[in-house]
Fold each of these.
Amino acid sequence: MPWSYSSVAHPEDESSLLLHVDLSDNLVLGQWAVHFYGMHVQAGLVCDQLFNLDEMPERGFFQATGTIEALAERCAAWFESVLSRSVSRGQWLHKGRVYATGWAFADTGEPLVGSVDNALAPTPHTEWHSFPRGPHDRCTLVRGATQPQTGPHAPSCPYEPSHGSPTDQRVPSEPTPRRSRATSWRQRFRFGSHR
């Protein structure tokens, strides 16, 4: 697995033993943590600076009770599954310049973080989590690369560059999503539809 920052500590209220890992690409893309309460654990995506967890099972949250050894094994396997997931960085271009960047798990398209530069964007984005609705213009596999990056799109990307140019400068509203052998249309970046 690619290297990730990890730490062991106690939360502010000293209620548990806290283990957490960060995924990053020059900025933190997400944090995942396990709270050990003796014979009980809670694990999931960190949702705030106090290391509280997002309790939605579809985001990876789980609770378990058992022996310390069994819980340690289950949590180690869970951390490994999180750290093994590939991450793609998508970029949207306007007039040859990047105006939006978003990171997502490459296997499902689940968004992690992103940003929009309104000064460069063709239309303003009023919310911090508002991303272009059209397909990105280029993407890079930033974690979990098992094959060389070629062209402006990662191997798992469901979009293909127009004209095969590595300096693709399409306006995001022009291209049409295309189905890929590796990834279905439902797995593409859909930042605009996640609120």
Amino acid sequence: MPQIADRDRPTASRLELREKAQVKAKWVSAVQYLAAGQRLDDAALAHDWNGLPSGTIILDFTGFRVSPVRDMGGSIEVCDPGEHAFWSVYGFHREAQEWQIVHDALSDDIGESLARIVELTGELVEYRDLSHAYANTRLPDLVDLLAQRILDEIPDQDAAGARADDADTHPLSYLREQIRAAIEKRRA
């Protein structure tokens, strides 16, 4: 019989938190809630995310993934960076055992959105596009993985046609910088 990790066991406080969060119809930080002596306060509440169905809360998900996506005439699909119209954050739903949309973000909002999700949940983040995936990593480590991919994909600076701004114009550079800035904002 497979063992259940402690973080996946429904404790009384986690169940109570989930019930209170559903009543408030808000995403709640379990860390803030428990640190505050299990009282639901304004600091523990976050804004509503544009992809969550009513009654679904952050504690219903056990991990998150960010992907570049494009609109194919009414159908949204994951694509390669550079082809994307916006970024989508998906969560792995604990009970449904499937990835579900949590939030769609424009480029200037994606770093803050991911940092807030991680801050609220403590969960790991994945990145996935059509050709690459980085699974279950901490947000600062995702910044490093994206930086390495950018360096791997730009031409050698001594090669013909190489430009000094190749790294800056890579389609993942803005995502990396947005995440890095959100992390630095929280460290300050």
